[in-house]
Amino acid sequence: MDLNLIWTEFLSGLEVNMSDVAFNTWIEPLEPIKLISSELIISAPNGFTKKMIESKYLNDMIGILSIILKKDATIKIILPTDNTYKQYQVRTKPGGQQYFADLTENNNGKKPIDVEKIKMEQMLNPKYTFDTFVKGKSNEFALSAALAVSKNPASAYNPLFIYGGPGLGKTHLMQACAHEIIDHNPEAKVVYLSSEKFVNELISSIGDRSNKKNSAFRNKYRNIDVLLIDDIQFIAGKTGTQEEFFHTFNDLYAQNKQIIISSDKPPKEIKDLEERLISRFEWGLMADIQLPDYETRVAILQAKLNMENANISRDILEYIAMNVKSNIRELEGALMTVIAHSKLLNEPNIDLERAKIALRKVIAENEKRPITLDLIQEIVADQYHITVSDLSSKNRSKQIAYPRQIAMYLCRNLTDSSLIAIANSFNRDHTTIMHGVDKISKDISNDENFEKEINELIDLIKNE
Ligand SMILES: Nc1ncnc2c1ncn2[C@@H]1O[C@H](COP(=O)(O)OP(=O)(O)OP(=O)(O)O)[C@@H](O)[C@H]1O
Fold it and tell me: What is the mean pLDDT of each successive set of 10 residues along the chain, which is 464 residues long?
């Protein structure tokens, strides 16, 4: 078995059992050196990491390696100063990319394997391709943009910014771009990752006081052809990460490299995102994905069903499409629930009545309204016997101004809308919102009864 493949599997095995921070801090910096029979030689960057691995993670690592090798394995941790295995050390190409330089293999004319590429391809879901993406009115613009960019990276639209609510297909579309670009050009250096992973990698590179790792981080992201960052909204409020990402973005853009970004909202509406990033994200093309209509929902269900090789009747698909409207992930979840019931009950031709019973919980959840600024305003207005338009009016009487501040507080705490979006919905500027939120926070901490009143309101909103 190839060392690179073993290592990739090994990392995946460890990653699921560890927190991201622990993985990035202790495991990521390790380098596989050589597999000699069933002993894996691993290099740790310093004595402290070596000690930490040996005391805390070695047993798990041996367990995982034994499963991969299908025999009892051992692991030896060495330091870069150990010359015994020098000829096997990882080398860095001029671009910063790393590969294993087993000199004996090179002498035999074998091409060194690109570790980053293997890792990256493993991160892509093989099912998330353009072929499996169902086109509908809600996503046709984003789909066309993604196709155009994948066919001609960095010449069609740069950056491409895809946004839309949860579970509507942003990750699927981003990964379809990555697959398509790699299929057309296997040499392309494509990096796909969530902004959370970007943040974690950055933190662990900063945590390393030797500058080596920090510059490896920079090289990694500045020497690629296509960068896809999923769920960029997670870098909001993280000043250091935004700074690093800003420079990465500028470097790639200046070199005419494609950048594709996804988010749950358009750049302007992302809470605590720096203005300079917002403006850069808006340089290229912004494409939104909306909630799918009924026909698209049925078509998606049909497509998923074909992949699952199960027999679910059309009336059940229509029933699901009619009742699950909130997002496609839930739609898929509902279909999988019916398929699971049909399999577990041994009813290959499950009927609509049975399916309805199986779906009762899913559908009840789906009927809950999502918490939006509009919903909060409706409920607050109703509770305090005023109208929704009073909330955004100029009226300053206490009977209206106080519920207005309560609604501002709830909008800020129960949604992740930006201050600007909240301010617009109340026809005010953002400082007024901040003042209102502060006032209500203080009143809550000073008055238990008021706190109770607000908690009851929150329950009402959550259960609507
Ligand atoms: N148009 C589509 N055709 C087929 N499947 C789709 C489509 N849109 C979404 N899906 C499926 O719905 C599920 C959720 O999609 P995905 O994870 O891409 O959503 P997302 O917008 O990235 O969500 P989040 O913001 O929560 O990360 C996936 O299994 C995906 O394959």
Answer: 77 80 86 86 87 90 85 88 62 45 42 55 81 96 96 90 95 95 89 86 68 68 89 89 90 93 92 90 94 96 88 94 92 91 83 90 79 94 95 94 97 89 93 95 94 94 82
Question: CA-CA distance, 119 to 162, in Å (whole number)?
Answer: 24
Same domain, yes or no: 456 and 412:
yes
Residue 388 lies in a domain: yes
Indicate whether residue 134 lines ligand 1 (CB < 6 A): yes
Where a domain ends, among 62, 87, 112? 112
Q: Among 367, 392, 412, where does a domain finish?
A: 367
What is the pLDDT, as a whole number, of residue 120? 62
What CATH number should be reported for the domain holding residue 320?
Answer: 1.10.8.60
- Tally of structural domains, the chain: 4
| Cβ atoms 162, 146 nearer than 8 A | yes
198: domain CATH number is 3.40.50.300
Residue the block writes with tokens 């993406």: 133
| CA of 132, closest atom in ligand 1 | 4
Cα of 21 from ligand 1 centre, angstroms: 27
Query: Is there a domain that residue 70 lies in?
Result: yes
| pTM passes above 0.90 | no
What ipTM score was computed for the predicted complex, to two decimals?
Answer: 0.98
**Residue 380 belongs to domain spanning:** 373-462
Query: Candidates 125, 172, 331: which one to mutate for ligand 1, based on the most atoms within 8 Å of Cβ?
Result: 172
Same domain, 71 and 36: yes
Domain-located, residue 118: no
Q: Whose CA is nearest to atom 23 of ligand 1?
A: 167
For residue 259, give the nearest of 339, 314, 193, 353 by alpha carbon.
193
Burial class of 105 by CB neighbour count within 10 A (0 to 12, 13 to 18, 19+): middle
The predicted pLDDT at position 213 comes to: 57
* CATH number of domain containing 25: 3.30.300.180
Cβ of 175 closer than 6 Å to ligand 1, yes or no, is no
Q: Are residues 140 and 198 in the same domain?
A: yes
Do 289 and 167 touch, CB atoms closer than 8 A? no
Kindly give the interhelix angle for 3-16 and 115-123, rounded to the nearest 10 degrees.
Answer: 40
Q: Using a 6 Å cutoff on CB, does residue 324 contact ligand 1?
A: no
Question: Is residue 394 in some structural domain?
Answer: yes
Distance, CA 198 to ligand 1 centroid (Å)?
21
Residue 133 CA, ligand 1 centroid: distance in Å: 9
Burial class (CB in 10 A: 0-12, 13-18, 19+), 397: exposed
